[in-house]
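sanity check this record:
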Amino acid sequence: MSDVNAGHVIPPPPPCPNGFIYTVQPGDTMFSIAQRFGVSLQALINANPQVTDPNVIFPGQQLCVPTQFRPSRCRRLSLTSPFMQGDDVLAVQRALVARGFNPGPIDGIYGPRTEAAVRAFQQSAGLPATGVVDAATYRALGIICPPGN
């Protein structure tokens, strides 16, 4: 079923089996949404064939944001000194944002804000709220770890 926004018909979102549905906010562009969630602009456009002009999206419109949470490794992540860094941390940060949790900057560094967001996510998911990213937390976040991790 379509919605109407300022005289524009907003098509329903496409199926999104490998991602999540995001509702466009005022000021959003396809580019800013792609940057926010760490996906390429082309991947975002490809996941949304219902958008006939990627330069024209409307608040309230729902888009499929494809997830790319496939790090090269999945270490047990915890708050350490110096802070842990890597694509596994980046995948956790992106997955947290996709689920509505704020890990701070999406920079691949496991700092205090990322740990706090992990704790909040774990609590909401019914996991022990340790702030440590273990196999159960990776699974709950939808992160696909390479074999042997």
Notes: The radius of gyration is 17 Å. Residues 112-124 form the longest helix (13 residues). The mean pLDDT is 88.
